[in-house]
Protein backbone atom coordinates (compact mmCIF):
# COMPACT_ATOMS: atom_id res chain seq x y z
CA UNK A 1 0.00 0.00 0.00
CA UNK A 2 1.34 3.46 -0.85
CA UNK A 3 2.35 5.88 1.87
CA UNK A 4 -0.03 8.59 3.05
CA UNK A 5 -0.38 11.88 1.19
CA UNK A 6 0.38 13.74 4.40
CA UNK A 7 4.06 13.59 3.45
CA UNK A 8 5.49 16.22 1.16
CA UNK A 9 5.78 14.78 -2.39
CA UNK A 10 9.30 13.63 -3.19
CA UNK A 11 10.41 13.38 0.42
CA UNK A 12 11.71 10.14 1.94
CA UNK A 13 8.54 8.87 3.62
CA UNK A 14 6.47 9.56 0.49
CA UNK A 15 8.49 6.82 -1.23
CA UNK A 16 7.78 4.17 1.43
CA UNK A 17 4.82 1.87 2.02
CA UNK A 18 2.79 2.19 5.21
CA UNK A 19 4.34 -1.07 6.44
CA UNK A 20 7.86 0.25 5.84
CA UNK A 21 7.01 3.50 7.63
CA UNK A 22 5.68 1.54 10.60
CA UNK A 23 8.90 -0.52 10.72
CA UNK A 24 11.01 2.64 10.54
CA UNK A 25 9.08 4.36 13.34
CA UNK A 26 9.34 1.22 15.47
CA UNK A 27 13.12 1.27 15.08
CA UNK A 28 13.46 4.77 16.53
CA UNK A 29 12.17 7.13 19.21
CA UNK A 30 9.66 9.92 18.70
CA UNK A 31 10.73 13.42 19.70
CA UNK A 32 9.53 17.01 19.28
CA UNK A 33 11.14 20.45 19.09
CA UNK A 34 9.71 23.95 19.59
CA UNK A 35 9.93 26.64 16.94
CA UNK A 36 13.45 28.07 16.82
CA UNK A 37 15.03 25.03 18.45
CA UNK A 38 18.22 23.55 17.04
CA UNK A 39 17.50 20.01 15.86
CA UNK A 40 20.99 19.20 14.56
CA UNK A 41 24.20 21.23 14.83
CA UNK A 42 26.81 21.84 12.16
CA UNK A 43 30.11 20.00 12.85
CA UNK A 44 28.44 17.65 15.34
CA UNK A 45 29.78 14.09 15.07
CA UNK A 46 26.62 12.19 16.05
CA UNK A 47 25.42 9.68 13.46
CA UNK A 48 21.67 9.38 14.14
CA UNK A 49 19.16 10.35 11.48
CA UNK A 50 15.81 12.06 11.86
CA UNK A 51 12.64 11.35 9.92
CA UNK A 52 10.46 14.45 10.07
CA UNK A 53 6.79 13.61 10.63
CA UNK A 54 5.33 17.11 11.08
CA UNK A 55 6.44 20.72 10.78
CA UNK A 56 9.14 22.37 8.68
CA UNK A 57 12.82 23.03 9.26
CA UNK A 58 15.61 24.94 7.56
CA UNK A 59 19.06 23.53 6.90
CA UNK A 60 21.76 26.19 7.08
CA UNK A 61 25.47 26.83 7.40
CA UNK A 62 27.47 29.87 8.49
CA UNK A 63 30.34 31.51 6.65
CA UNK A 64 33.57 32.50 8.39
CA UNK A 65 32.13 36.00 8.69
CA UNK A 66 29.03 34.72 10.48
CA UNK A 67 26.56 35.10 7.60
CA UNK A 68 23.87 32.42 7.54
CA UNK A 69 23.44 30.57 4.25
CA UNK A 70 20.17 28.63 4.01
CA UNK A 71 20.80 25.40 2.12
CA UNK A 72 17.29 23.95 2.09
CA UNK A 73 13.83 23.96 3.64
CA UNK A 74 12.45 20.52 4.48
CA UNK A 75 8.90 19.45 5.32
CA UNK A 76 6.97 16.43 6.60
CA UNK A 77 8.45 13.15 5.41
CA UNK A 78 12.01 14.45 5.06
CA UNK A 79 15.05 12.44 6.09
CA UNK A 80 17.68 14.55 7.84
CA UNK A 81 21.27 13.68 8.72
CA UNK A 82 21.69 11.11 5.96
CA UNK A 83 24.87 12.68 4.54
CA UNK A 84 26.71 12.44 7.86
CA UNK A 85 25.41 8.90 8.32
CA UNK A 86 26.71 7.82 4.90
CA UNK A 87 30.07 9.61 5.02
CA UNK A 88 30.85 9.20 8.70
CA UNK A 89 31.93 12.85 8.74
CA UNK A 90 30.63 15.69 10.99
CA UNK A 91 27.32 17.28 10.06
CA UNK A 92 27.60 19.80 7.23
CA UNK A 93 24.71 21.99 8.34
CA UNK A 94 22.52 23.10 11.21
CA UNK A 95 18.85 22.09 11.22
CA UNK A 96 16.51 24.59 12.90
CA UNK A 97 12.77 24.27 13.50
CA UNK A 98 10.82 26.94 11.59
CA UNK A 99 7.72 25.90 13.53
CA UNK A 100 6.96 23.18 16.11
CA UNK A 101 8.19 19.92 14.61
CA UNK A 102 8.05 16.23 15.46
CA UNK A 103 10.06 13.33 14.15
CA UNK A 104 11.52 9.91 14.75
CA UNK A 105 15.17 9.67 15.82
CA UNK A 106 16.77 6.50 14.42
CA UNK A 107 20.16 5.60 15.88
CA UNK A 108 20.69 2.21 14.20
CA UNK A 109 19.81 3.32 10.69
CA UNK A 110 22.42 0.96 9.24
CA UNK A 111 20.67 -2.01 10.87
CA UNK A 112 17.32 -0.84 9.54
CA UNK A 113 18.68 -0.54 5.99
CA UNK A 114 20.29 -3.99 6.25
CA UNK A 115 16.81 -5.42 6.80
CA UNK A 116 15.16 -3.25 4.15
CA UNK A 117 17.19 -3.42 0.94
CA UNK A 118 14.59 -1.61 -1.17
CA UNK A 119 14.79 1.41 1.13
CA UNK A 120 18.59 1.45 0.85
CA UNK A 121 18.19 1.90 -2.92
CA UNK A 122 15.64 4.67 -2.36
CA UNK A 123 18.13 6.39 -0.06
CA UNK A 124 20.71 6.41 -2.86
CA UNK A 125 18.18 8.01 -5.19
CA UNK A 126 17.33 10.61 -2.54
CA UNK A 127 20.97 11.57 -2.06
CA UNK A 128 21.56 11.82 -5.81
CA UNK A 129 18.46 14.02 -6.11
CA UNK A 130 19.72 16.38 -3.43
CA UNK A 131 23.14 16.62 -5.06
CA UNK A 132 21.46 17.48 -8.38
CA UNK A 133 19.37 20.12 -6.64
CA UNK A 134 22.52 21.59 -5.10
CA UNK A 135 24.16 21.75 -8.53
CA UNK A 136 21.07 23.43 -9.98
CA UNK A 137 21.14 26.13 -7.31
CA UNK A 138 24.82 26.83 -7.99
CA UNK A 139 23.95 27.37 -11.65
CA UNK A 140 21.17 29.76 -10.59
CA UNK A 141 23.60 31.86 -8.55
CA UNK A 142 25.75 32.41 -11.62
CA UNK A 143 23.01 32.76 -14.23
CA UNK A 144 20.16 34.64 -12.49
CA UNK A 145 19.97 38.12 -11.03
CA UNK A 146 18.69 38.56 -7.48
CA UNK A 147 15.08 39.05 -8.59
CA UNK A 148 15.25 35.86 -10.65
CA UNK A 149 16.65 33.90 -7.70
CA UNK A 150 14.02 35.28 -5.34
CA UNK A 151 11.28 34.43 -7.84
CA UNK A 152 12.68 30.90 -8.15
CA UNK A 153 12.60 30.36 -4.40
CA UNK A 154 9.06 31.77 -4.15
CA UNK A 155 7.89 29.42 -6.90
CA UNK A 156 9.44 26.51 -5.00
CA UNK A 157 7.73 27.58 -1.76
CA UNK A 158 4.39 28.04 -3.50
CA UNK A 159 4.57 24.64 -5.20
CA UNK A 160 5.68 22.78 -2.07
CA UNK A 161 3.90 24.59 0.76
CA UNK A 162 1.33 26.86 -0.87
CA UNK A 163 -2.35 26.83 0.04
CA UNK A 164 -5.14 27.93 -2.36
CA UNK A 165 -6.54 31.33 -1.44
CA UNK A 166 -9.31 32.55 -3.75
CA UNK A 167 -7.45 32.12 -7.01
CA UNK A 168 -4.08 32.95 -5.46
CA UNK A 169 -1.57 30.82 -3.55
CA UNK A 170 -0.74 31.69 0.04
CA UNK A 171 2.60 30.58 1.43
CA UNK A 172 2.24 30.35 5.18
CA UNK A 173 5.75 29.05 5.81
CA UNK A 174 7.32 31.10 8.63
CA UNK A 175 10.40 32.17 6.68
CA UNK A 176 11.79 35.62 7.46
CA UNK A 177 13.24 38.01 4.88
CA UNK A 178 16.70 37.43 6.35
CA UNK A 179 16.26 33.68 5.87
CA UNK A 180 15.03 34.22 2.32
CA UNK A 181 18.14 36.31 1.70
CA UNK A 182 20.30 33.48 3.04
CA UNK A 183 18.50 31.05 0.74
CA UNK A 184 19.03 33.16 -2.39
CA UNK A 185 22.65 34.12 -1.71
CA UNK A 186 21.86 37.84 -1.60
CA UNK A 187 21.76 40.63 0.94
CA UNK A 188 18.58 41.51 2.81
CA UNK A 189 18.50 44.85 1.00
CA UNK A 190 18.74 43.19 -2.41
CA UNK A 191 15.96 40.75 -1.50
CA UNK A 192 13.75 43.62 -0.30
CA UNK A 193 14.28 45.37 -3.64
CA UNK A 194 13.50 42.15 -5.54
CA UNK A 195 10.29 41.61 -3.58
CA UNK A 196 9.25 45.20 -4.27
CA UNK A 197 9.83 44.63 -8.00
CA UNK A 198 7.66 41.49 -7.92
CA UNK A 199 4.95 43.34 -5.96
CA UNK A 200 4.97 46.24 -8.42
CA UNK A 201 4.35 43.77 -11.25
CA UNK A 202 1.33 42.40 -9.42
CA UNK A 203 2.83 38.95 -9.06
CA UNK A 204 2.88 38.76 -5.27
CA UNK A 205 1.83 40.41 -2.04
CA UNK A 206 4.01 40.19 1.04
CA UNK A 207 3.35 40.47 4.75
CA UNK A 208 4.96 39.41 7.99
CA UNK A 209 6.19 35.86 7.37
CA UNK A 210 3.77 35.29 4.51
CA UNK A 211 3.63 35.66 0.75
CA UNK A 212 0.54 35.56 -1.46
CA UNK A 213 1.28 34.65 -5.08
CA UNK A 214 -1.32 36.12 -7.44
CA UNK A 215 0.26 35.02 -10.73
CA UNK A 216 2.25 31.79 -10.35
CA UNK A 217 2.82 31.42 -14.10
CA UNK A 218 4.10 34.99 -14.28
CA UNK A 219 6.39 34.32 -11.33
CA UNK A 220 7.71 31.19 -13.09
CA UNK A 221 8.46 33.26 -16.20
CA UNK A 222 10.36 35.83 -14.11
CA UNK A 223 12.25 33.02 -12.42
CA UNK A 224 13.45 31.81 -15.83
Automatic annotation (TrEMBL):
Gene name linked to the record: fnr
Keyword Transcription: yes
InterPro entries: cNMP-bd_dom, cNMP-bd_dom_sf, Env_Response_Regulators, HTH_CRP, RmlC-like_jellyroll, WH-like_DNA-bd_sf, WH_DNA-bd_sf
The HTH crp-type domain, residue ranges: 144-217
Pfam family, one: HTH_Crp_2
Protein name: Crp/Fnr family transcriptional regulator
Occurrences of domain Cyclic nucleotide-binding (ranges): 12-102
PROSITE patterns assigned to the protein according to its UniProt record, in alphabetical order: CNMP_BINDING_3, HTH_CRP_2
Tagged with keyword Transcription regulation: yes
Domain of life: Bacteria
Gene3D superfamilies the UniProt entry points to: Jelly Rolls (2.60.120.10), Winged helix-like DNA-binding domain superfamily/Winged helix DNA-binding domain (1.10.10.10)
Biological source species: Sphaerisporangium rufum
UniProt entry keywords in alphabetical sequence: DNA-binding, Transcription, Transcription regulation
UniProt GO molecular function: DNA binding; DNA-binding transcription factor activity
Amino acid sequence: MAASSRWEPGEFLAQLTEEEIADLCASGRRRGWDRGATVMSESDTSDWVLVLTSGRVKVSSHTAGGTEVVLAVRGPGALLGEMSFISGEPRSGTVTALEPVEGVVVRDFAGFLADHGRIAVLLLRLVVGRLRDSDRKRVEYGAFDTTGRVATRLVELAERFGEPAGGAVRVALPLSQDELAGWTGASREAVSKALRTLRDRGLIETGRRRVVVYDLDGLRRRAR
